[in-house]
Amino acid sequence: MPELVSIVVCAYNNWPDLDLAIQSALCQSHQPVEVIVVDNSSTDATAVEAPARFGTRVRYIRQPNTGDGGAYNTGLAAARGEFLQFLDGDDVLAPNKIEKQLDVFHSDPDADIVFGGVRHFQSLPGQARWTDIEYGDEDAGIEPFLRRDGHCLGSALGVLFRRRVLDRVGPWDEALYRSDADYYLRAAVAGCRFRYCP
Question: Which residues of 62-76 are buried (b: 16+ CB within 10 A; e: fewer)?
Fold first, then answer.
């Protein structure tokens, strides 16, 4: 039976972009997935629209704003999957992202974290612009992490975690505005094995 993947979406005043983020999580080529939306006390339409639009297809949790790290921690506590994807409310997953990264996990059972490139694109009107960011195919240990000033993996969008990593490394740091780089460094120090997926 295919592995359950938990996708934790951190929402804070992202509506209607959040609608696309949730749809991209629900419509992954790999199934089953569970989608957990953690709303950091949004003041926009999120609290009304997300539950009404998606109903029981997502688990909606509203909490005081604890930043992305706090939302990731809340989602992790609620998640049941063996693999976890963290996603911000203004991000979109490629349709086969989870499937491709699970293939890497299956080919290397010792892998703890699989990462890949991301595409940054504008959501404002005007001429379309985007930037593709790839991080290379090397193992992302401590040395490449430091050489790239902590940006060896990019945002959580491009990363898929095996649950055992999160159990070993512990919670995301809720005191940091951007907790991604801190988490990757802690994972590297803990001896986690990183693998690249283009």
Answer: beeebbbbbbbbbbb
